[in-house]
């Protein structure tokens, strides 16, 4: 499929072009010292940052969602991953269309004028108040300098994944539980749990603007969302097979409390929450 077919029609809208044409020349912006100072994140740094903000508490609920939604609901999880990856591509296209745009406020303004900026600002601030953990990341423009924090978050998420798996090997819990095929009545609630694991688009504009080569942002999105979706799906089936109908909404709470694995997993959970 060609890039022109994938490009969102709103980029070609008359209102977007009007607001875009009213701005100053983008070439002078590209030559500014601010832009050059910030665009120093490599492809690997960008993948680490995006994967780090995606991997969070959402992974703990995937076993509960798989068990209550049925194994067929995993297609919904993968579908949400693909959909969110595509919306990140659309976001990059908006930022690429007007090189002066730096965030959702600018995109809203160029699309719908001052009203668009107000609407975008309202939703962003509501999102910040509801997910204050992302606020420190929004203060930092040079994300390559904090990639170690994202790396730590990825390591902690993998530690939780490994300890849950080790519960089947060393913890005395057998992975012999039955997962139902599909429970339609639970799909609305399960959908919310699935989409929560991909809700990190707030920081994507900063990741895009911090890249040395923003044209690789789409590849960064594909790699990051693929890794995270695989982790979520694998952990979901693993937890559901281990704990069955009794699985908690946070899989760590279903592990045997007396085991050392539970203590390790609990420490990883606390550290990942603070991270």
From TrEMBL:
Its main location: membrane. InterPro entries: AA_transpt_TM (IPR013057). It is a multi-pass membrane protein. One of its GO terms (molecular function) is L-amino acid transmembrane transporter activity. GO terms for cellular component: vacuolar membrane. Residues 129-264 form the Amino acid transporter transmembrane domain. The chain crosses the membrane at residues 74-92, 118-140, 152-175, 187-208, 220-240. It is found in: Membrane. Keywords: Amino-acid transport, Membrane, Transmembrane, Transmembrane helix, Transport. This is Amino acid transporter transmembrane domain-containing protein. It comes from Papaver somniferum.
């Amino acid at each position: 499929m060609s890039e022109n077919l994938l490009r969102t029609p709103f980029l070609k809208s008359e209102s977007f072009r009007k607001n875009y044409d009213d701005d100053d020349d983008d070439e002078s912006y590209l030559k500014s010292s601010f832009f050059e100072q910030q665009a120093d994140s490599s492809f690997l740094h960008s993948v680490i940052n995006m994967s780090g903000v995606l991997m969070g508490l959402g992974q703990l609920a995937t076993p509960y969602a798989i068990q209550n939604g049925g194994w067929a609901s995993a297609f919904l999880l993968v579908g949400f991953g693909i959909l969110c990856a595509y919306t990140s591509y659309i976001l990059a296209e908006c930022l690429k269309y007007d090189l002066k745009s730096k965030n959702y406020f600018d995109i809203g303004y160029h699309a719908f004028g001052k009203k668009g900026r107000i609407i975008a600002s309202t939703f962003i601030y509501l999102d910040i108040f509801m997910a204050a953990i992302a606020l420190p990341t929004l203060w930092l423009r040079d994300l390559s300098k904090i990639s170690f924090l994202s790396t730590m978050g990825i390591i902690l998420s993998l530690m939780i994944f490994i300890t849950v798996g080790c519960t089947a090997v060393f913890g005395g819990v057998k992975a012999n539980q039955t997962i139902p095929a599909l429970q339609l009545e639970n799909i609305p609630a399960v959908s919310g749990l699935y989409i929560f694991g991909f809700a990190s688009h707030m920081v994507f504009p900063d990741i895009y603007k911090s890249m040395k080569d923003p044209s690789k942002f789409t590849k960064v999105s594909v790699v990051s969302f693929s890794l995270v979706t695989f982790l979520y799906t694998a952990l979901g089936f693993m937890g559901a097979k281990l704990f069955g109908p009794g699985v908690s909404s946070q899989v760590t709470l279903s592990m045997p409390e007396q085991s050392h694995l539970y203590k390790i997993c609990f420490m990883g959970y606390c550290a990942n929450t603070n991270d």
